[in-house]
Amino acid sequence: MTRSLAFLGLGMMGSAMARRLIDAGFALSVFNRNPERSAPFSEAARIAVSARDAAEGADLIISMVTDDRGSRGMWLGTDGALAGLKPGTVCLEASTLTPDWIGEWAGHVTGAGGVPLDAPVTGSKLQAETGQLVFIAGGDTAPLDTVRPALAAMSRKVVHMGPSGSGAMFKLINNFMGGVQVAALAEAFTLIDRSGLNLEQAIDTLLDGSPGSPMVRMIAGRVLAEDYRPNFQLALQAKDMAYALKAAAPLGVDLPTVRAALDTFNTAVAEGRGGDDIAAVVKSVRER
Description:
Elements: E1 4-8, H1 12-23, E2 27-31, H2 35-38, E3 46-47, H3 51-55, E4 60-63, H4 68-75, E5 90-93, H5 99-111, E6 115-118, E7 121-122, H6 125-130, E8 133-138, H7 141-152, E9 155-162, H8 166-195, H9 199-207, H10 214-224, H11 234-248, H12 256-273, H13 280-286
Parallel strand pairs: 1-2, 1-4, 2-3, 4-5, 5-6, 8-9
Antiparallel strand pairs: 7-8
Helix pairs in contact: 8-10, 8-11, 8-12, 8-13, 11-12, 12-13
């Protein structure tokens, strides 16, 4: 049973996940590079001055950051979490990262005496707030079993996908499929607009048929409501598709639909929409 936890990264997802752990009764040390993000936790958790400080004495360290660079900064260096690691600590990287970095990271964790688990999540802001995330884990089953009580506070399901790196690879596949659907939906909205079809009737009919996946339904609803407040930032979706292309190339796998979707998202980012929800890519394409 995990006794003491460190949580690194208190952005939109990380802060909601940390709150779930606190509400479940876990003792947390938290760290965020921007201290303003840590301040709201001052009465419920120990505010650490560095990732190393947060990690000292922890049985489980969870990181939830934006990208490979952010993860590297959290774990490595004199102020990184691995510098404060006690032997046998489970190190869980929940961020969406490249398999290349996860392979390197796992080596660093093992070398420091820790136990690595790559366990990114599916779901966005709402699922994080309500404890309905799904953890997709790569690594050994024994350490995963020891941290299941903590994961249960944040999720509805934990899937052991395979050995180290499996969680990271699956998460990129999951996210590029979502991005491709959203890019296709943006083109559908645009063609409906310009062909003179009744928008609401056309979208309702699409959602009632095979194209109406959960992702398409969610994004269509947000577009029709003109709600672009971020549940999943558009720039992060673009980052994930770029990571997927990078991961696929050494395996000899071409992802032409992902490249096309990434172009659509990158244009929206260049327009200044990167901080908006991914639904804003539909607005971007309709206005071109």
